[in-house]
Amino acid sequence: MDVDVAVIGAGAAGLSLLAALSERTAPDGRPWSVACVDPGPGAGPGRRTWCFWEPAGGRYDRAVAHSWRRLRVVGPGGAEVGADLGSLRYKMLPSDRFEELLDGWFAQCALPPLRVTAVAGEVADGHDRAVVRGRTAGGGEVRVRARWVFDSRPAAPPPARTTLLQHFRGWFLRAEHDVFDPGAVTLMDFRTPQPAHGVSFGYVLPWTARDALVEYTEFSPAPLSRAAYDAALAHYTRAVLGVRAAGVTDTEQGVIPMTDAVFPRRTGKRVFRIGAAGGATRPATGYTFAAVQRQTAGIVRRLCAGRTPLPPRPHRRRHRMMDAALLRALDTGRLDGPVYFEQLFAGNPPPRLLRFLDGTSAVREEAAVVLSARSAVLPMLRTAAELPLLPRRPAPGTP
Fold first, then answer.
1. Alpha carbon of 101 to those of 58, 69, 150, 297, 371: distances in Å?
2. The model's pTM
3. 203 is a domain residue
4. Is 284 left (phi over 0), alpha (psi -120 to 50) or beta?
5. Distance between CA 191 and CA 213 in Å, rounded?
6. Mean pLDDT in order along the chain per 10 residues (399 residues)
7. Which residue of 23, 100, 373, 394 is 20 to 30 Å from 199, comparing CA positions?
8. What superkingdom heads the lineage (predicted)?
């Protein structure tokens, strides 16, 4: 088949790009012809939960499972910092509901995206077209010719000065008694045993007094075994949260690279990387979904203007530099992670801090945020000074 745009992968980045293109037309006024090459249900990581913050009334709100207007952070000693988000909402978007919403959108399009169920392999670049080759489950060959190809498949991080992993496992819990506060997200609860390098915390998304997603998360060099995650979750839910009896209705688990590597946005004349593979993940937080929307909007603007659709960098250079310093400071042990994050939330109004974490803050706001974490100023300055002298090395496990 021959199309304007081929998208590889139907995760957050791929589906967001399909959705944006379905609402726009090409420079000549016709609908975009788009194909999405993806292995289909059962071949990927399964159900995922994407979280982000934005004002109420967002374009995907019909698929949002739950939202909250309050956040809390709990320090190692149990001190709680609570914050009302004002006009913002912290939103929980399950991948299956997102896909269902977009399927409804696509069904009403004059030219719906073509869904090609196949495992994509080689992408052959060309002068005026690129070709995506793939294999179906039955062994059949698939070839999609496109003017532009956007590849969202996971890729090994490029060489970096620091590479940590945000790795986590979560239980969807149904407690036998009222224990959760459904009005607030516990973004970070540091009443967990801390790793030798990095930081760990509990994360709680409650939607009733008895129902919640509870996760154990680490920023550290290597993932844990499933047994170790379950032991950490059992300790956190029972000893810290006081959940005496609960059933686990579902689980989720993942690993997100946190790295100061510079991800390539272009791998050929007509081939680009998007999503986490294109640098959308914020190195210091692991949040990706909001940056994917900014990246998608930039791509579509350039396509509709008839320009080469090089994906914009989702994060500004100064934010990437601050993230590099934070990752290095955590990895070396210079920075006490729980104290640092507790001071950030205690010393800043929520809208300012969330803009900072999302990478949409202004310079003056960033200065106020940095100075609010008093214990981190000297370690971060020392780390920032040494960064230019450090070599970039391949991430562990990559050639």
1. 13, 23, 22, 19, 42
2. 0.93
3. no
4. alpha
5. 17
6. 96 96 94 95 77 94 97 94 92 96 94 95 94 95 97 92 95 96 97 91 98 97 96 97 93 94 95 96 94 97 97 94 95 93 93 91 93 93 95 76
7. 394
8. Bacteria
Boundaries of domain holding 13:
2-45+93-157+262-304
Q: Structural domain tally of the chain?
A: 1
The answer to whether residue 74 is domain-embedded is no
Structure tokens at 123: 């992408």
User: Which pair of tokens denotes residue 346?
Assistant: 């205690």
Helices (H), 181-332: 226-235, 289-304, 317-332
What's the token pair of residue 8?
């590889």
Provide the 3-class DSSP secondary structure of residue 57. Answer: coil
What is residue 357's three-state secondary structure?
helix
Residue 60 covered by a domain: no
Structure tokens at 261: 């590597």
Residue 18 sits in a domain whose CATH number is: 3.50.50.60
